[in-house]
Amino acid sequence: MIEIRQLVKRFGKQTILDHVSLRLPDGQVSVLLGPSGSGKSTLLRTINGLEPFDSGEIWIHDEIRLGEAGSPGRDDAVAAIRRQVGMVFQQFNLFPHRTVLQNVVEAPIYVLGKPRGQAESRALELLDQVGLRDKAHQWPSSLSGGQQQRVAIARALAMEPTAILFDEPTSALDPKMTAEITSVIKELSSMGQTMIIVTHAMQFARRVAKQVSVLHSGHIVETGTAEQVFDAPQHALTKSLLAQEAD
Amino acid sequence: MAKSLCLSRGCFTNLVTCAWWFAGCLLVSLNPAAGQQTDALHRIQQSGVFRWGADREGGGPFVYPDPNDPVRLLGFEVEIAELLAARLGVEAQFCQGQWDKLPDLLDRGDVDIVLNGYEWSANRAHRYGTSVPYYIYELQLLGRASDPAESWEDLFRLPRKPRIAVLGGSAAQDYLQTLYPDRVDIIQYEGATDAMRGVELALDGLDANLQDLPVWTFYRGSFTRLKALGDPVGRGYYVVLTRKADSALLQVINDTLIDALRDGRLRNIYTKYQMWNTTQAQRGLETNPTGGFVGDARQPADAVDSETETTDYVAVRGWGVIWQRGWLLVRAAGMTAVLAILAMPLAILIGLLATLLRLYGPRWLAWLPISYIELVRGTPLVLQLYVLFFLLPELGIAIGAFWAAILGLAINYSAYEAEIYRAGIQAIPRGQIEAAQALGMSRWLTIRRIIVPQATRIVVPPVTNDFIALFKDTAVCSVITVVELSKEYYIHARSTGAIVELGLLTALLYLAMSYPLSILATRLERWLHRERQE
Question: Is the pTM of this model over 0.80?
């Protein structure tokens, strides 16, 4: 369980996140929806410390407390969180100077200190799982966007994370590639992997989400199960987002 | 040949002032003779080696490469050094140094004496031990044989101020400045023979050259388009310089010189180089084997007796010079390559560390790399080398010329490499660093595994550019006595006059080193970006 309590994030005079509280349960896919500028990506990035915040706190499994920027113990908390919460980016961010396999084994070897042989055999299993075992020795730049994103997922999985954060994972992809990612995420979901996904792609959200939260101007306007939010939206913004999808 | 002491010392004092500012250190007092506690005589006898400093670029008849065997040194000063070494019972060791920096080498303790046409002056005698004169020199005015002027008076009758070339900072320059401050234009040249060549070619409207008489006598055969104007003027004394504290050594040198004058050995040496003249004879020190005064019994004209052959300087000219001396340039090119190849990796390392400290170090330390880069980038390489070479020994750090050159080049280039790396690091997309952070990589691990390898791929072309520039900048190292390709070229171009032939070979050697480097760099770049080929 990842719990966000009364989180406030300001950028100058502008308030990006205004006392946001949210519980993200284990073993399921939670989706954060919202128009651009709603603060959904910022919220996601506060969880693993990529984005500092001004007040409030984040609890990971009731074990690690992440406080506001400059609070005592924050650096240690960030380090601990990053070892167990993985992340997948909109632009994949694979390391271009390393092969696919090297990308996946980098952190297990150099952060966790796993023996290379063990890290590589696990990496090959994961690449197999995302359907890219045969690309293990290729360069990221020779792969399609969808393939690169699947490598990025394998890279996150190689750290055996308790949760994975996805920041707009399909925004840079065409529908065919989006489908590849959707099927990988659905498979992981069926294995009970905790995932938190920020997206504005409604169709994608419908296919994978168990819990949905809708953000607007730094506030959470609606949270519920996928059925509740998609079939009986309560807030006007949710309705308009769904209406746009129908167009 | 004889530059004024005040000039080179003044220059040194200024540089030392800069050096204090440079090092930011005000604790150690400035004592140029620091570390020279015991008399050099003792050290010489202990080590069995007597080190004498001179510049073979200055040329004949002082110290110059043998025209037939360029590795061997000839010159009357070589023979005097051997006389001194024989008296001391040790080996003479020649130490190359840039002429105007020779007194600094004496201060550093790199040489025991300076023996290279240094004229006596009150300033010099105040600063250094000065021996009895080993030669009385005069200055000769030289003009073009085709010009009508035959004397100083003729020159002054020209409708404009005569333009006279001199060796920069030499006694000839002092002479003109003292006697004719407003009547002549003085043009300074770096080499004695360059000044003569300038007059031959009428460069810059030159009318004449005021030259040390021995130099003119020696090179007369190579400058057939020149003629002497009037009688020699401005008599002065060539003396051996020692450190002020080495009075026991100075005493031995004086005794040796006086004995050699008395028994005719110096006369024989000077006769060989066609330098013996009435001026020398008039010192009246010579005696016969029974101790009687020789007087006029041996006239200069008789001096050329059967056992003393004269040395006529006939340098190999034209393309033959390439066969004779080319290999010396190739060998010097090796020094250039070694300097560049050792200095560049060091420069990259220092530069990278400076940039990493600036970008990722603690904020309170950021001023350190920033001021380092600005200071090093904003001051000339030649100044940095000079300060390193001459300041460090005064601070008690012994460093040889070779390592001082490498360190100086590395420090100078590190500032540029730092800025190149900063640009390279800043060109890496932010997402790369976020991806590394999100994987739990520490700051140092991210720098080591992600940032530096990616930045290195980006900076290969500009760093290669600097590497090639560094190859050429090694030429500056001659100011701290390192003989590399350019210095070797000057030595042989000035002593043979084969400026074009040896110049072409030298250019070719530089190109032969830098071009393969470009190719290598292209390959390296391709390898670092090997994903692009697939």
Answer: no
